[in-house]
Each structure stands twice: as C-alpha cells, then as structure tokens.
Design a protein that fits this description.
This protein is mainly beta. The protein has eleven helices and 56 strands. The N and C termini lie far apart (about 75 Å).
C-alpha cells in the first residue's frame, strides 16, 4: 500500500516539475492593433504562424497570446479590409508588440477612366462600372467584349454566332432605339471608334487583341456619357490598353490550346424514324423516293475544332521612355467545317515625359491582320443539315450526279439544269463547294499630349490625335459544278452561266483631332475642389467598298471563268467591267464643342455638369446641330459627422443624375439628298428599238432629325469594412424621342419606298443592383464573389408612321416582330393556338379573339417580347495557397423565342413535301399532330417559347508555381471550360438568340451558328 502511494507521489512530483519547466520556457505576448488613424480595430485575428495558437483583439484593439515558446517567432495579424502584416518577434520573456494596419488597395481610391480625364471612383457622380484585368473572364477569349460578359449590371452581351471571332450584341439598359442602332459607343485609348462593320471581318472588335486590354469603364447613365453627345444614347464603353512600366524589363508569355465541340444538335428524326414515318404517312411515290443510306447530316457538317492563342509582351523603361510592346497570334478553327480564323496582332505603347514631367506623351499603336474563312450562307447550311433527307448519301457514284461534283442532289431531268427546283441543297456540298475567305487589316494609332503649364500648373492643355484604318479584301468562289449555281442563266450570247466568283474590297477610315484644356484646383480655405474641361473635336469617317459578281461560262463541254484565265490568274479586263462591279464611297464629318465642370465641398457634396454641341453632316443643314446637356449631384453620406469614423461603413454615396444624349446610327450619310443610281441590266427602257439603263431616284428624307434620349437616374453606392464589400443600386428612367426606324414613303414619290426616319417615342425604366465582396483575404486563402441583377421594362409610347413587320413564309430568315404603341419593341404578333383535352395543339384552330366568327389578322395579339425582363450575373473565385478555382454564370429571365426551326420542320407538310422531295423533320412532328397546311399555322403562338435560361459561361482552375528560374520568373498553368452547361425549357438548340434588331428580326431562331463548348489548357510565364 505504501509502495503504491510512493509511486503516485513520484509521478505527481514529476508532472509539477515538468509543467514548471514548460512555463519557464514560454512567455506571453500582448499588444494593440490600430488602423492608420490610430483607432483600435476590434476583432482582428492574431496568429502565431506555424502553430494553432491564435487570439482576437478586444473592443479596445488589445490582444493577449499565452504560452508562446521562447525564441524567434512570427506573428500574423489579419483584419477584413486591411493588409495582412507579419512581424518577427524575439521572445525571451513577456513582450509587447503593437500593429498599425494599412487599408488594402481596394476600390476606394481606384482611378476610373471617364470621358476626357480620370476620376477617383469615390468621387464619381454618375453610374459608371469598371472591370480591370484581374476580374476579366478567362478561357479562349477571342474578342474584347467576352472579357466582361456577365460582370456588369444592366449590360447584356450576346454573341452573334459561334463562328471564330464572331462579334457580340452589346446592350446597355435595354437599348434606346428601335432600329436606329443600339450599340454603345466604343472609345479605345481616347479614340471613339466607328460602329460600321467592315465587309470581310467577322467583327470590328476582333481585330483587337484582348490580351492587350487593361480595363473597361462602362458609362451607363447620361450624366456620365453626355460628354460624348450624339453617339452616347446607348452608353459608352471606354477601353484602356496596357501601358509601359517603370523599372527593369518584364517579359510575359502566355499560350493556350483549345478543343471545341458541338454541345447539342437540333432534335430531328433519325434515318430509321424517318423511314417509319414516311412508310406510315406517305404515298407509294414518296416511299419509293427514300434511299438506303443512314446519314446524320449534322455530324457531316460539324467537327471537333482545335485552336491556339499565343501572346508575348515586353514592358519596362529605356532611359526616360516607359514602353510596352506585344505581339500575338491566334488560330481558331470553327466547329462548322471549313470555318476558321487566324489573327496576328501587335501593340506598341510609349509614354515618355519631358520638361520635368510638364509634358506627358502617350503614343499607342494597335495593328492586326485577320484571315477568315466563312461558311457562305451558314444559316441555310445548318438548316439544310437538319432537314435534308437522312436516307440519302453525301456523295454518289451514279453518273446522274457527276455534273454536281458527285454530291447527291434532288434532280429533275426535265429542268434546264437537271435539278428539282425549290428543294434544299446538299449541306455538305454547300460547305465544301464554296470558298468564302477574306483578309482584314486594321491599324489604330493615337497620340495624346498633356502639357502642364510651368507658370500655371493647375492648367493643362491636351491634344488627341487619332487615326483608325481598316481594310479588307476577299472573295466568294462557287465552282461551275456546284449545284447551288449550276447553269442558272444565259449570257448575252446565249451561253449558259454557272458558278460564280464574287470579289470584294472594303476600307474604313476614322480620323480624329481633339484639343481641350483642363483645370483642377483645391481651395483648402473653403474646403472646395473643382475641375473643368473645355474642348473642340472634329472626326472624319469614310467608308469605301467595292464588289462584283462574275459567273463562269459554259462553252460546249468546257467551263471557264469570265474573270480568270486558264492558268487561274485574274482577267483584268473582266474585273474592269463596271456593269458587274460596284464601287461605293460614303463619308461624314462631326464637329463638336464640349465642356464639363466638377465641384465638391468638403468631400461631401458633389456637382457635375456637362454640355456638348455636335454638328453631323448626316443630317440636312438645318437639322445638323444637336445639344446634349447633363447635370448630376452626389452626397457622400459617410463623410458626415454622424457617420464619420463608423468602422463598418466606408462608403455611402447618394447620386441623382439627368442628361440628354443623341443617336445617329443606322442612317445613311446622304439620306437627306435626292440620290440617283444606275438601274440594273434587267431594268431598262426601250427607246427606238434599243434598251437603255436608267438613272433612278432613291428615297430621301430632308426633315430627319436627331434621335434623343432623356435619361434620369438615382443611385446609391455603398461600401462596407473599408470597401471589402462594395456595390451600387440604381433606378433609371429613359425616354427616347424622335425614334429612328425604317418607314415607308408615299407611292410614286420615288422608286425607293423605305428609308430611316423619325417615328415616335419609347421608354425604358429599370432597377440595377450589384455587390462585390472579398469574402476572405489572407495569404493562404482568398475568396471573391460578384453578383449583379438588372430589371428592365420597355414600352413604345408613340408611333407616327412605322410599318409593322409581320410576314413569315416558312424556312429561315423571316420575322414575326412588330412595334406597336403600349408594347415592348419587337413584340411577337401571333394567333392564339387552341389545344385539345390532351394538351396537344389542334391543327389549324385558333381563338377568334374579336368574336366576329372568322380568323383574320384582327385576331392576332402581341405575345411576349424577345428582350429579357431580368438579367443576372454571378461569378466567384476561390484561392487556396497556390491553387485557384472559379466560375462565371449568367441568367436571363422573361425572354421569349420564336422557334422558326420548329415551325419549318415540325409539321407533316414539311416531311411529305407536296412538290415531290422529302425533308427531315424535328422530333416534335411525332407528337404535335400539326400538318402545316393552314394559312396561319406559321403565326401560331405555339412556336413562341420561353427562352429563359441559366448558363455557366466558364469554369476554371489554375495553379501558381510561384518563383521559378532562380526567382526571376513566375509560372502559372490553368484549365478552363467555356459554355459549360445551360438549363432551359426552350426546345431548340440554344435560347440565347442573336439579336438583329436593326433588320427587324429579334428573338427568332433561324438556325444560327451554335456556340461551341470549349476546353482550354493555358500557361503563363513572367520573367524579370
């Protein structure tokens, strides 16, 4: 017993001695954490790095860390909204360590590029959103606008096609016009760009390398954009490219490899389903028409497409010359066979300063060459692939098809060219027998001189010079044995023409001179700051284009081109045949005076006022001048005494804005003049037995005036925890007057019966909300998120004279949109379908809405609109040590689509064609029971489908190796997927329909080039 107690006492003594030894080897660290104004920061985390020991500061910013081992340790202090600080501490007893935290470099003092200057974001009075390089979308980005898709509230970016380099439709706050043009003004490094499309270029912006872009500023309301006057009614997007840096040269290299696939095919009958349908519903002749092949025509025209993108840049300072030079090469194949794009780019930026920084020079040059291969009439090819008979082969050895290159076609021996008329063409033949290619060049040079007067340093004189030139040349060649152009007509000598060679050239020039003075002054005695800008601008736009159409000629058994010799060289005599060649020159000039005044008192109360007067030669002399004023007030509530010093609220600013902007897009340079043009060879006047071509007048409108938008906005900018969380809420109301739209002209006034004129008024109003959050920001873990949502309501309030566009004749390329007072623009005007007890549509039966006992055009009604009611965007990036992962998602709600593919392929009449050929149909034909025989069937609201969707645009993962090459380099690798998935109830391939409002077609699914799903591997290397 005594022995047991003795053992217990020995162990107890050993434990006490051991504990004493441990405490003798540890210490206590105390201290205080304050901000840059010496205010305590409660809740800051204090961690002993490399251990699990941590504590937090109390209400007075004090902390106490127990049992810290003696020796050299590292303390880490983190607090939301402030930079993390590490301190190395030598511990040999109790010690006190204080920390002064510095705010993180957040958006609070971010400098934003605005019209003719810059401004701190905290001092803005207008609704302006900025997106910088660190927040750009990732992946196989081929055009600049893809960098910010889904990132900004109220900004909708919809790609017009899935073709390589294809452009996008950008709409800010729903657009302000009918078809006068809804594209925002793009300003590149101070150079306002032309919105004119270059013939032979997939997209004017695809000539700009996205890798050279540093930031976007989106001016959404009139108070911000009115300084740009007549071109700003649809907002302004200011693009700033990357500039040179001071210090040693930095070399950046990036490369990507991509694989693109077709995400979804149109849902059509398989060959076996097709045979069963024809056997069950067709007559004996139709059954006998079927072939023995099993051809999936969609698989025949689509492919897995490879791509690569490579960029190299060098930036630094050579003496007094900061510079940045970059080159890029991109090679993208399209998922539609034969389509491709190769682009070569260069960018040079020089930004020296002279006279002890009194003169600052910024020179920027962007050059590019883009080689495009298009699929001529691609919508028809895609549509034919969905409807061509799947029981027929792609090619046949039968001599019947030899004249057409061996491609199987619908034939009729009794016709002139042996082909059945009004039947679809073999889609593979349409692709492979047409060579539509172009080469486009672009050079944009801008020079900015900023001189600060020696004797008056608050005054600056600025000169902007800009020159933007684009050129393209290309041709479409259809060989003589192509069925699409086989022996289509006879020339003057009676020889049959076949095939075609269509060359074209285009050139766009944009020249700018701008001079302005800027003045900035702080008057501390009265707590005031003001700045002002006043200037003059002249910009000259010139558009030159030429094109021709030259057939091949059949001379006995020999086919030869009228434009090429036997060796393939172009025949200059034929090219100079001006009866076949058209040459156009259009030019207009804008001159402008503008000014802006900013004032703030005590960084609490802000005033901004601007005015611009524009004179455009697109209008008649009496209506050329437009004046566009704006005013904005802002109250920075967080700087008031009752909120000042509140730790949680770092920004709270109320904004109220009003302004007027203009629009002249969509109208011709000389539409106010009576113009005469030579008639075609098929429209001649016989005089004395001889036919003469006539000069015929075109439509003109001398009384046309500016389309103007009165825009009001009230907004609240907020920021919490030192702008760790930021965002804005905006309500806007825009009223567009003197809408520009195509209108009819009175009969007999001229031979041209339509022209763009002023037709009425339209309203847009909506609400926008955005929030950006740095949820976690430590050296080990980082998490950022962005969410934005916008609600928009559009309504036409007045129309004076505009023709409703409602015709649909089947197939593709038609429209069902109307513009009517009291409804949204481009509303769908249709008949109301009647459904049976089983929920299926009753064939040819519609609701007699006016009750007159018959179905007439008066029974049509407006059923929804293609414009979304709500647009959402959500993106997130998570970083853990050297890994990062993120995604970008978007959603459109309330947008509807006219499924023209279903209306063209979903009826029995389409499959069992009465003219004798067979067409494939959508799987809908198996269940709908629709025949398509009724006169009004195509205008049924059965084909108006909900196009709402949720889509993940991008998902990415990356790994940062950190320092490589003995600390001289940084290496990152990444993997991306674009167009990851889409969730929708729409029955077609993709509910996000390209918007072509300027042609009167909106929300109509016409077999557009599908957007690919793209898998990307990337590598970035930076060397110093």
């Amino acid at each position: 017993m005594k022995k047991t107690y003795l053992i217990k006492y020995v162990f107890l003594l050993f434990f006490v001695l051991s504990t004493a030894t441990v405490f003798a080897q540890t210490s206590i660290i105390t201290g205080k954490v304050v901000d840059e104004t010496n205010q305590p920061l409660p809740g800051a985390a204090v961690t002993l790095k490399g251990t699990q020991k941590s504590t937090g500061t109390d209400a007075n910013g004090n902390f106490r860390l127990l049992a810290v081992p003696n020796g050299t340790v590292t303390l880490e202090v983190t607090f939301i909204g402030y930079q993390t600080i590490d301190k190395v501490v030598n511990v040999s007893g109790n010690v006190t360590v204080d920390f002064d935290l510095v705010p993180s470099a957040r958006s609070l003092n971010e400098v934003v590029v605005i019209g003719y200057g810059t401004e701190k974001k905290k001092d803005l009075t207008g609704s302006i959103a900025t997106v910088t390089a660190k927040d750009f979308n990732q992946g196989a980005i081929t055009t600049p606008e893809q960098l910010i898709q889904g990132k900004v509230a109220g900004v909708s970016i919809t790609s017009n096609s899935g073709a390589p380099g294809a452009g996008s439709t950008i709409t800010i706050r729903g657009g302000a016009s009918l078809n006068g043009g809804n594209d925002p003004l793009i300003v590149l490094d101070g150079m306002p760009l032309s919105s004119d499309a270059l013939n032979g270029a997939a997209n004017p912006l695809d000539l700009i390398n996205p890798n050279d872009i540093a930031s976007f500023s989106i001016l959404k309301d009139a108070s911000a954009s009115a300084i740009y006057g007549n071109r700003a009614s649809n907002g302004v997007i200011i693009i700033t490219t990357k500039k040179g840096q001071s210090g040693k040269p930095v070399i950046n290299f990036s490369t990507q490899f991509s694989v693109a696939t077709l995400p979804k095919e149109a849902s059509v009958l398989s060959a076996s389903q097709f045979r069963n349908y024809v056997k069950a519903n067709g007559d004996s002749a139709q059954i006998a028409t079927m072939g023995t092949a099993n051809t999936d025509w969609q698989k025949q025209i689509y492919q897995t497409a490879l791509g690569t993108d490579n960029n190299l840049s060098v930036s630094g300072t050579a003496g007094i010359l900061p510079y940045r030079v970059s080159v890029g090469y991109s090679d993208q194949n399209g998922i539609l066979k034969t389509t491709s794009m190769q682009r070569y780019t260069t960018n040079v930026n020089l930004s020296p300063s002279f006279f002890t920084n009194h003169l600052k020079v910024n020179f920027n040059f962007i050059g590019s060459q883009t080689n495009n291969r298009f699929a001529n009439n691609q919508n028809a090819i895609i549509g034919d692939a969905a409807t061509f008979d799947p029981t027929q082969p792609v090619k046949s050895s039968n001599a019947l098809y030899t004249p057409y290159g061996g491609y199987w076609q619908w034939t009729d021996p009794s016709s002139q060219n042996g082909l059945k008329q009004n039947t679809p063409g073999n889609p593979v033949a349409l692709l492979e027998q047409t060579n539509d290619h172009s080469t486009a060049y672009r050079g944009i040079a801008s020079l900015n001189l900023d001189y600060k007067f020696h004797f008056f340093p608050d005054l600056h004189a600025n000169v902007n010079l800009g020159y933007d030139e684009s050129k393209s040349n290309g041709s479409t060649t259809i060989p003589a044995d192509a069925a699409s152009n086989y022996l289509t007509a006879a020339d003057a000598s009676g020889k049959l023409q076949s095939g075609a060679y269509t060359p074209y050239n285009a050139e766009l020039q944009n020249k700018l001179f701008e001079g302005y003075f800027s003045y900035s002054k702080d008057i501390k005695s009265i707590k005031s700051h003001f700045d002002a800008v006043a200037g003059y601008s002249i910009q000259d736009f010139k558009n030159t284009a030429s094109n021709g159409l030259f057939p091949f000629i059949s001379n006995g058994s020999t086919l030869y081109s009228t434009t090429k010799f036997a060796n393939g060289e172009v025949n200059p005599t034929a090219i100079n045949n001006y009866n076949n060649y058209e040459y156009l020159i259009n030019e207009f000039i804008m001159t402008s005076f503008y000014g802006r005044f900013n004032y703030n008192y005590d960084e609490k109360y802000y005033l901004t006022a601007s005015i611009r007067s524009d004179n455009s030669t697109k209008f008649a002399p009496g209506t050329r001048t437009g004046t566009f004023p704006s005013v904005a007030l802002a109250w920075k509530i967080n700087n008031e005494d009752f909120l000042k010093g509140t730790p949680a609220i770092s920004t709270l600013k109320l904004r109220v804005e009003y302004g007027v902007t203009g629009n002249q897009e969509g109208i011709g340079e000389y539409d106010y003049l009576s113009q005469y043009s030579l008639s075609t060879s098929t429209a001649q006047y016989n005089f004395g037995g001889t036919n003469y071509q006539l000069y015929r007048p075109g439509a003109y409108y001398p009384g046309r005036t500016w389309e103007t938008t009165d825009a009001s906005n009230i907004g609240l900018d907020y920021g919490f925890i030192n702008d760790r969380i930021t965002g804005s809420i905006d309500y806007y109301y825009n009223k567009t007057k003197n809408l520009l739209a195509t209108i009819g002209q009175p009969a007999l006034t001229n031979f041209g019966n339509q022209i763009v004129g002023n037709v009425g008024n339209m309203e847009n109003n909506g609400l926008e909300f955005s929030i950006n959050a740095d949820l976690i920001d430590t050296k080990t873990i980082g998490w950022t998120a962005n969410f934005n949502v916008s609600f928009n309501h559009n309504k036409i309030t007045n129309l004076t004279s505009v023709a409703d566009l409602t015709g649909i004749s089947g197939g593709t390329g038609n429209y069902v949109n109307v513009d009517q007072v009291g409804y949204a623009r481009n509303s769908f005007n249709v008949y109301q379908q009647v459904y049976g007890p089983n929920g299926k549509p009753l064939d040819g039966v519609f609701v007699d809405r006016n009750g007159d006992g018959s179905i007439t055009v008066a029974d049509r009604y407006n059923d929804h609109s293609p414009d979304p009611k709500q647009i959402f965007g959500f993106s997130s990036d998570f970083r853990y040590e050297k890994w990062n992962i993120g995604f970008v998602t978007r959603a459109n709600l309330g947008n509807y689509v006219y499924n023209n593919v279903a209306s063209s392929t979903g009826t029995s009449r389409n499959i069992l064609n009465p003219i004798g050929n067979l067409n494939n149909g959508s799987t809908d034909v198996l269940t709908s029971g629709l025949t398509g025989n009724g006169a009004n069937d195509l205008l049924s609201d059965y084909y108006i489908q909900n196009g709402s969707f949720f889509r993940m645009d991008n998902a990415h993962i990356g790994y940062n190796f950190g320092k490589v090459f003995k600390g001289t380099g940084d290496l990152k690798i990444s993997a991306n997927v674009q167009n990851v998935f889409i969730i929708t109830d729409y029955k077609g391939v993709d509910p996000e329909i390209p918007y072509t409002g300027t042609t009167g077609v909106a929300g109509v699914d016409n077999n557009f080039y599908p957007r690919p799903r793209t898998y990307v591997l990337g590598l970035n290397l930076s060397l110093r």
